[in-house]
C-alpha cells in the first residue's frame, strides 16, 4: 500500500493506471533540485526518450520567464517533460500553448474549477495565477533537437508561503478547493491531456489548440497593458495569431503584434503578472 506522507509525490501512484503511450511513462523523481528544466536538459542530452518526465518535490532555483525565480515550496508540482518534435524552433515555441490548454483542461476535469489561460504561459483560477510554463529548447542547424516543457503548479501550497508582493496575484488548487488535492491523480490526468494535445500539435493541427486556447481565455476583448522588450503600451487584446503572437489594437486603431512580454489586465486595474 502506497501511503502519502507530507505531500510527497509517489511516482508509482502516477504510473498506476496512466493511460498514455509515452507521456510520463518514464519518471525521474527527485526530492530537491535547482531546476527540473535543467535536469531535464541533462537527461535529454544523454538521449532520454520523448515523454520522459523529471519531477521534484522542491526546487532551490526554480526558473520563471525572463530569468525570474519560480517559488517552489513543498506541496507544489514542479516537473519538466522532454519532447523531440520534428518542427522548426519557431513552431516549438507553440508548445507553451499546448501545455497551457492541457493544464487548464486537467484542472477543469478534476476539480470543476473555472481555469483560464492567459497569454502567453499562465493558467489562472479566479483571476489568480495557479500555473506557469517555461519552454526551453536545444537546436542544431535551425532544427529542434529537443524541447523541455517545464510546468509549475501551485497545488497543495499555502499562498502565505509566497513572497508578500506576489500573494494577491497567486492562488493554489488547495486554496480554491478548500482542501488538499490528490497530486498523483491530478498528474495522471494532466499527463493524459498533455499527450492528447501534443499529438494534436504533431499532426500539425495547431489551429485546434488555438481554438481551445481562445475558448479558455478571458484576455481576448480585454483592455491590457503590455510590456514587451523596452516598450510599454496599452490596448485591446484582439486575438492570438497562428504563430502564437498576441494582437493588440492601440487607441489609434493600429494593430500591434506582440511576440514576447508580459500582459496585465487594465479594465479592473488588477495585475496578474509576476
Ligand atoms: C513562469 O510563469 O514564469 C514560468 C514558470 C515555470 C516554472 C516551472 S517549475 C518546473 C520547471 N522548472 C523550472 O525551473 N521552471 C519550470
Describe this structure in words.
By secondary structure, this protein is of the alpha+beta class. 26% of the residues lie in helices and 30% in strands. It contains 7 helices and 12 strands. A 7-stranded mixed beta sheet has the order 1-2-3-7-6-5-4, with helices on both faces. Helix 4 packs across helix 6 and helix 4 (95-111) crosses helix 7. The structure holds biotin (BTN). Biotin binds next to helix 2, strand 3, strand 6 and strand 7.
Number of strands: 12
- The whole-number mean of residue pLDDT values reads 93
The end-to-end span amounts to 40 Å
Question: Which small compounds were modeled alongside the protein?
Answer: biotin
* Helix residue percentage: 25-40%
Largest sheet: 7 strands, mixed
Order of helices and strands: HEHEEHHEEEEHHHEEEEE
Secondary structure class reads alpha+beta
Give the overall shape, derived from the CA principal axes: globular
Kindly estimate the percentage of residues that lie in beta strands according to DSSP. Answer: 25-35%
- Helices, by number, come to 7
Major sheet strand order: 1-2-3-7-6-5-4
Task: Outline the low-pLDDT stretches.
Answer: 268-274
Provide the gyration radius in Å. 18 Å
What layout of secondary structure does this protein have?
Elements: H1 11-15, E1 27-33, H2 36-45, E2 53-59, E3 77-83, H3 89-92, H4 95-111, E4 115-118, E5 122-125, E6 128-140, E7 143-153, H5 173-177, H6 183-202, H7 206-215, E8 223-228, E9 231-240, E10 246-249, E11 255-258, E12 262-265
Parallel strand pairs: 1-2
Antiparallel strand pairs: 2-3, 3-7, 4-5, 5-6, 6-7, 8-9, 8-12, 9-10, 10-11
Helix pairs in contact: 4-6, 4-7
Bound molecules: biotin (BTN).
